Amino acid sequence: MKTPNKPILVVEDDDVDVMTIRRALKEIHVVNPVIREENGERAIQYLRNSESEMPCIILLDLNMPVMNGIEFLQVVKSDPYLKRIPVVVLTTSEEQQDKVNSFNFSVAGYMAKPVDYRRFVEVMRSIDLYWSLSELP
Question: For residues 83 and 30, what is the distance between their CA atoms, to the nearest angstrom?
Fold first, then answer.
C-alpha cells in the first residue's frame, strides 16, 4: 500500500475472508504487515493503544458481532486522532443504506467482496494502486 512497513488494519470477523485478503495482498506484492481485529470494538482498542503502530489504511467489514462497521466508523470519524486514517469498506453487504451510512462517515471507498478470487485480487490491486498514488497529509 503506501508508507512501507506501516500496517494495514483489517477489521473482519470471517477467517476465510482474512486469509483471502492476506493471500491477495501477497500476490500483488504488498509487503505491509497485516493486523487483524475481529470486530470494531477490538479495532478501536488497538487504535487507541499507545503501543500500537497506526495503520496506513483500514479495510473494514460492516457485518460483525459486538461492534459492526458503521458503529466503528461513528467512533473513529469522531476522534480527532483517528479520523484521518483512510478507511475502505470491504463488505458483502448490498444494502444501499450501508453505502449511504459509510459515505456519511467519510470512507475513502466502498467495495463489494467479489466471490471470485481473481476479481478479489483485482479489487485489492485497485486499492493498492489508489493508495500508492494518493498523497496523505
Answer: 24
- How big is the chain by its Cα radius of gyration, in Å? 14
Q: What is the pTM of this model?
A: 0.89
Single-letter amino acid, residue 42: R
SS3 annotation, the chain: CCCCCCCEEEECCCHHHHHHHHHHHHHCCCCCCEEEECCHHHHHHHHHCCCCCCCCEEEECCCCCCCCHHHHHHHHCCCCCCCCCCEEEEECCCCHHHHHHHHHCCCCEEEECCCCHHHHHHHHHHHHHHHHHCCCC
Q: Cell triple for residue 136?
A: 496523505
Mean residue pLDDT across the chain: 87
Residue 11 pairs with which residues in a beta bridge? 37, 60
pLDDT in tens, 9-53: 999 999 999 999 999 999 888 888 999 999 999 999 999 999 999
The domains of the chain, with CATH numbers, are 8-126 (3.40.50.2300)
